[in-house]
Amino acid sequence: EWQKRGPNSALFPLFTQLNIPDASPSLRLLESWIKQDEENVSLYSTLGQVAFNSGDDVLAEKALLKAIELNPNDAIALNYLGYWWADENRHLEKAITFIQKAVQLQPYSGYYADSLGWVYYRQGAFDNAVLWLEKAIQLTPTDAIISEHLGDAYWQTGRFAEARFKWQYALDMGIEESRIEGLKAKLDKGL
């Protein structure tokens, strides 16, 4: 019944957290809502995140770019797309522009600071990466991925003991299972 009434913006953050085997019903629902309200930035941003989580990269990128087109100050879409590109080593110049804007809009987000540090890392600007990743870990001290990123940046700047400490800390915090073997390899051999 609630689906027929249209979108409830309070539910959008819940949609972005969905990790279900078949997200196609959710994607279809979001797309039908967009047809009713083609200027709704939150719908495009949510569609992009849900599509990304379900593995539809083409739809995800298209939806996030549309959200940014409609609202160039959508910090969530700017960071999400910028981090995704940085993580995949794609469009790094555009990624850094998007993430810098997100950080400017939300300067106390540890996740956005992490994204900026990570894009600097991907560009090989390791000193800048350390600066931003240290800020990120101060803002969000219990995030294992931020700790791993900072460890990587420390390693690249010759701070090997600190790198190993951050990698071990990421393991101790309970990082997602898919990253455990990679972290153990870093602890054993470095980068």
Rg measurement, Å: 18 Å
In round numbers, the mean pLDDT is: 89
**β-strand number:** 0
What's the end-to-end separation, in Å? 53 Å
**Gross morphology:** globular
For the sheet with most strands, the description reads:
none
Question: How much strand?
Answer: under 5%
Description:
- With 191 residues, the chain is mostly helical.
- Helices cover 74% and strands 0% of the residues.
- It is built from 12 helices and no strands.
- The protein starts with a helix and ends with a helix.
- The model has no long low-confidence stretch (mean pLDDT 89).
Secondary structure layout plus pairing:
Layout: H1 2-5, H2 12-16, H3 24-36, H4 41-53, H5 57-70, H6 75-87, H7 92-105, H8 110-123, H9 126-139, H10 144-156, H11 160-173, H12 180-189
Question: How would you summarize this macromolecular structure in one to three sentences?
Answer:
The chain is mostly helical and 191 residues long. It has 12 helices and no strands.
Relevant terms:
191 residues, mainly alpha, 12 helices, 74% helix
